[in-house]
């Protein structure tokens, strides 16, 4: 749930405004202090489906999904290494370094080799995103981030667009650091200061 703090506020505690679709094909800027937020934090081994009202975490509506990008990436690496004996990829970190660096000499080949597997993973994520949106009473603003989001973004955008479900879906910039930034924003917030003072107060004064 840390990510929602970085979605709603900046490091100085000011609300962040983001552009969203409005009526008649126009866009407008809004903040998310009181908006229903559905976050998909795509990690290596799990994907966290987090619902919040602003920064207020809705525990009963949130859940962890038992998959991330790791298994898919390991499968891609295995096939790549079979076909590229002299240019093997030895870890997910090395895969990320090549895949996310458009200047790397193997970038284009690796993206092409990964396309089918990533579309399969993106289809699974898209199904969970759409099902959750349809399951909620309020139309949420959907934020997608996490280390895995950087890898699967293009495929996921493509599938959601094909299904006509990209409205109010926001792929955050710097998706790898959203939770860390959210924790930073939270620790700078008045709420954290109040909790800290309460925790540090002498017994009997809390």
What is this structure, in a nutshell?
The chain is of the alpha/beta class and 206 residues long.
CATH topology: Nucleotidyltransferase, domain 5
Described by the principal axes of the CA atoms, the overall outline is globular
Oligomer: single chain
Return the CATH class: Alpha Beta
Write the layout of secondary structure elements.
Blueprint: H1 2-8, E1 18-21, E2 27-30, E3 36-42, E4 47-53, E5 56-57, E6 63-65, H2 70-83, H3 92-99, H4 107-135, E7 141-145, H5 147-162, E8 169-171, H6 178-187, H7 190-200
Parallel strand pairs: 3-7, 7-8
Antiparallel strand pairs: 1-2, 3-4, 4-5, 4-6
Helix pairs in contact: 1-6, 2-4, 4-5
3D structure, described in words:
- InterPro entries: ATPase_NBD, MreB-like_C.
- Residues 40-157 form the Actin homologue MreB-like C-terminal domain.
- This is Peptide ABC transporter substrate-binding protein.
- Pfam families: MreB-like_C.
- With 206 residues, the protein is α/β, with parallel strands linked by helices.
- The chain has a single domain (2-193), classed as ATPase, nucleotide binding domain (Nucleotidyltransferase, domain 5, 2-Layer Sandwich), CATH 3.30.420.
- The chain has helices at residues 2-8, 70-83, 92-99, 107-135, 147-162, 178-187, 190-200; strands at residues 18-21, 27-30, 36-42, 47-53, 56-57, 63-65, 141-145, 169-171.
- The strands form two sheets. Strands 3, 4, 5, 6, 7 and 8 form a six-stranded mixed β-sheet that branches. Strands 1-2 form a two-stranded antiparallel ribbon.
- α1 packs across α6 and α2 packs antiparallel against α4.
- It is globular.
- The mean pLDDT is 90.
């Amino acid at each position: 749930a840390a990510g929602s703090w970085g979605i709603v506020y900046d490091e100085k505690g000011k609300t962040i405004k983001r552009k969203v679709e409005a009526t008649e094909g126009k866009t407008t800027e809004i903040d998310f202090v009181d908006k229903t937020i559905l976050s998909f934090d795509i990690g290596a081994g799990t994907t966290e489906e987090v619902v919040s009202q602003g920064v207020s975490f809705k525990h009963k509506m949130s859940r962890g999904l038992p998959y991330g990008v790791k298994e898919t990436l390991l499968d891609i690496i295995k096939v790549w290494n079979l076909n590229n004996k002299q240019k093997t990829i030895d870890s997910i970190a090395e895969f990320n370094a090549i895949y996310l660096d458009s200047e790397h000499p193997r970038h284009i080949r690796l993206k092409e080799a990964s396309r089918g597997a990533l579309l399969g993973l993106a289809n699974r994520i898209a199904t969970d995103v759409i099902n959750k949106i349809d399951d909620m009473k309020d139309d949420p603003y959907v934020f997608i981030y996490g280390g895995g989001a950087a890898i699967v973004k293009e495929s996921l955008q493509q599938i959601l667009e094909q299904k006509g479900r990209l409205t109010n879906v926001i792929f955050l910039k710097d998706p790898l650091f959203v939770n860390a930034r959210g924790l930073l924003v939270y620790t700078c917030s008045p709420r954290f200061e109040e909790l800290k003072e309460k925790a540090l107060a002498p017994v009997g004064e809390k």
